[in-house]
Design goal:
The complex is a heterodimer of chains A (about 600) and B (about 140). The longest helix of chain A has 30 residues. In chain A, a hairpin with a 3-residue loop joins β4 and β5. By secondary structure, chain A is mainly alpha-helical. Chain A has 28 helices and 5 strands. Chain B is built from 5 helices and no strands. Chain B has about 140 residues and is mainly alpha-helical. Classes of the chains: A mainly alpha (about 600), B mainly alpha (about 140). Chains A and B meet through α4, α6, α8, α10 and α13 of A and α1, α2, α3, α4 and α5 of B.
Chain lengths: ~600, ~140
């Protein structure tokens, strides 16, 4: 079945045309053969998991196939790097690689530069001008990397060899949030997972005894009132560490601290995500190195003081001011992203429903592990998984306090989902895995297959629902290259919104600006879709000339900006209509055009009016 | 030193020499990006992780990538923050660490951990008993 799926995928992939992406993204452009291939590989994996004994090579083959199909589809079909942020990150690497300088205080990226320093180093050693030629495959690489610590974590939580495989499978079916691109968060997420895996595998508390939390004053009385069945399920059993000597554990601890130091200097949010997770493990008495959270706090504070002081001096008030404002964070995160065309609204609502469903399935998995009676006839592999259900559940819930920090540009729920996903996948695996008694049941096979297929369908819709704007055509990239070739340093490179493949060169030497806000101020009363009259066009041109202040000014208008404006309703004036009006006014001249892009240059001085 | 140890150490050292030669001589060849990316992603961490003698393939693979990225980042960042940004010098540091770790493993340092030695000796004395599901969790190096 796996080979048939690969053949079908090979037939389907060349027929995916990015021009066919609609308001709901990739799912509208994927041929039926592609869907058939995905169904086949999903069902084949569920079937392979029922074999006794397991065939690891077959499982690796099917997981790799699923990974390549789901996370590599855009790399093959589009051929260019997705996400405007990936282009921006490349620009930071380019700047560091060329100058060897950190422009502290320029923007937040430079105050957490670890990932960009690594990228600059790697691209120079590789002898390439930047990593854009490889960046479209980063999703495949990162998700393959995530599976390693995930496998170690799942294996350390259960003695059932099927659970790590199923956890990896579920993770690949549910990672819709799209943080796995050429980004600090995608890179640091891998490192953070490794930290947790090291703690759970080599630093467990092996001495028998109850949780620290159960010993808290006042909890004992209430604890005795909890039904025994539930209580037994919640109480963790004693799990052995992986075999290791004191010397090995010291070496691992040194490695652990070095890895956290890299995370600390590479991303604003991940150190806090790791801190909450490690604190949860320590509070539940599952880690023998109890000073780790204190050490992590000290390291975070040290970096904020020494490494990010310029950023804190300029932005600290707004960051600190937002901390603790949970209502505002929730409102921005939950509502700001749900607006736009009906197609986009459908995708946005699907994101909410899908995430809620995954959380719900994880909760059911935890409940199953807690409640299922442990008796001889039902001691199945899944039941063994409850040995560490408390820790797993705590790790799935640990990222939620992040919402109290700030809204993170309306993305905080996405980040929380991302941090919690490995542990939710583990709990869902425990839910779907058959116990010994129904292990060969057709009903269990059908139910697991159906849930997996539903998760896969939701993943395609949610992950690739905004593909119209995440994707950049070759024409858009060629136009961006041309723009950098003709624009002298110090020029203004303007776009109508941020959805552009720019900033990958000259990150600090050009001035970049989106015109959304300026257009709203100059022409606040324009109706959506209206055309610009000459007077308003002149007003806009005047405003742009004033902004340019004598420096060369270029306007980059592209297909992706048009799509973003259409999907999100950013501006009443469409980018193409604006370009038409400015070109017709004579205040801007066209210097480059292809099927998807136009570049206009401000004419300076403006032509005199003839009377 | 076992034959597989020699093979691994030799492969890593050879890879580091190839990448070092291409980078220091600034050779422009299609193989350079793949060789360099592969080396920086896997080799430094693999060389160090093998010193730990964890005896578990997946954990070692995880540590290899995690440690490689950490060593690469720290080597590059240290020179940058010291005001001496030089990718070639950073690469030299990474290669030195990698080859030193291979050399240490080659001369048998740090030896097998005491606990592992004891358990292996015990395993030799007693017949091997497989777990109910043949789980490989407790298998040692």
């Amino acid at each position: 079945m796996g080979i048939l799926a690969a053949l079908l995928w090979a037939i389907a992939l060349p027929r995916v045309d990015p021009a066919d992406f609609s308001d709901i993204g990739l799912v509208s452009a994927l041929p039926m053969a592609g869907y058939a291939a995905l169904v086949l590989v999903t069902v084949a994996f569920v079937a392979a998991l029922r074999e006794q004994p397991l065939r690891p090579l077959l499982l690796v083959f099917l997981l790799s196939l699923l990974l390549f199909m789901v996370y590599g589809v855009t790399a093959v079909a589009e051929g260019t790097t997705r996400f405007n942020a990936a282009w921006r990150h490349t620009g930071l690497m380019d700047h560091i690689g060329r100058t060897g300088r950190i422009e502290s205080g320029f923007d937040a990226y430079f105050d957490w530069p670890g990932f960009f320093i690594l990228g600059a180093f790697v691209s120079r050693v590789a002898g390439v001008s930047n990593l854009l030629g490889y960046a479209q495959w980063v999703s495949v690489l990162l998700n393959a990397m995530y599976l390693l610590p995930l496998f170690v974590i799942a294996r350390s939580s259960t003695s059932d060899p099927r659970i790590p495989w199923l956890t990896s499978f579920i993770f690949l079916l549910t990672n819709w949030v799209g943080q796995d691109y050429l980004s600090p968060q995608g890179f640091n997420f891998f490192l953070a997972l490794c930290l947790i895996a090291i703690l759970l595998r080599w630093f467990r508390v092996v001495s028998p005894g109850a949780h620290v939390i159960w010993r808290m004053p006042g909890l004992g009385w209430g604890w005795r009132r909890v039904p025994r069945r539930l209580r037994d399920g919640l109480r963790p059993e004693n799990i052995e560490n992986a075999p290791s000597s004191k010397r090995q554990r010291i070496a691992l601890l040194v490695i652990w601290l070095a890895v956290f130091a890299v995370i600390d200097g590479s991303h604003q949010l991940t150190p806090f995500g790791a801190l909450f997770a490690v604190s949860g493990i320590v509070v539940l008495n599952r880690c023998s190195v109890r000073w780790l959270p204190v050490g992590m706090v000290a390291m975070i504070a040290a970096w904020l003081y020494f490494g990010a002081s310029a950023f804190l001096a300029s932005q600290g008030q707004s960051i600190v001011g937002g901390a603790g404002d949970v209502n505002s964070s929730v409102a921005r995160t939950a509502t700001d992203r749900v607006s736009g065309t009906p197609g986009h609204l459908f995708v946005a609502q699907a994101n909410v429903v899908y995430s809620t469903t995954v959380w719900g399935l994880a909760a059911l998995g935890g409940l199953r592990l807690v409640l299922v009676r442990k008796s001889r006839d039902t001691v199945g592999a899944a039941i063994d998984g409850r040995r560490d259900v408390v820790t797993t559940a705590a790790l799935a819930l640990a990222p939620f306090p992040l919402i109290a920090l700030q809204s993170y540009g309306g993305e905080m729920f996405l980040r929380i989902y991302f941090f919690a996903l490995p542990f939710m996948a583990l709990l869902i695996a425990a839910l779907l895995l058959p116990s010994r008694t129904n292990g060969r049941s057709v009903w269990n096979f059908a139910a697991t297959s159906l849930v997996s297929l539903a998760l896969l369908g939701g993943l395609l819709l949610c992950r690739y629902g905004n593909e119209q704007i995440n994707y950049f055509s070759r024409d858009e990239v060629a136009a961006a290259d041309h723009l950098y070739d003709v624009a002298e340093p110090g020029s203004w490179l303007a776009s109508v919104n941020w959805v552009v493949p720019l900033r990958y060169r000259g990150y600090t030497t050009y001035r970049y600006t989106p015109l959304n806000n300026l257009l709203s101020e100059v022409a606040p009363d324009l109706a959506v879709g209206s055309t610009l009259d000459p007077a308003t066009t002149d007003q806009i041109a005047d405003a742009l000339a004033a902004l340019a202040a004598g420096e060369p000014f270029y306007l980059y208008v592209s297909r992706a900006q048009e799509a973003a404006n259409h999907l999100f309703g950013y501006s009443a004036i469409s980018p193409q209509a604006l370009a038409d009006a400015l070109e017709a006014s004579g205040r801007f001249r066209l210097i480059y055009a292809n099927d998807d892009t136009r570049i206009l240059q401000l004419v300076d001085p403006p032509p005199r009016a003839t009377t | 030193m076992r034959r597989t140890d020699r093979w691994w150490s030799g492969a890593i050292v050879a890879w580091s020499i190839a990448v070092g030669t291409l980078a220091f001589a600034d050779v422009d060849t299609p193989a350079r990006p793949l060789l360099a990316l592969g080396f920086l992603l896997v080799c430094p961490g693999l060389a160090i992780a093998r010193l730990l003698r964890l005896g578990d393939g997946i954990s070692e693979a995880m540590l290899a990538i995690c440690l490689s990225l950490t060593v690469d980042t720290l080597a590059a960042a240290a020179l940058l923050y010291a005001g001496h940004w030089s990718p070639n010098a950073s690469l030299a540091i990474v290669i030195a660490i990698t080859d030193a770790a291979c050399l240490l493993r080659g001369v048998g340092w740090p030896g097998r951990p005491a606990q592992v030695r004891v358990e292996r000796a015990a395993a030799r004395r007693t017949p091997r008993v497989r777990g109910p599901r043949g789980h490989r969790e407790d298998r040692l190096a």
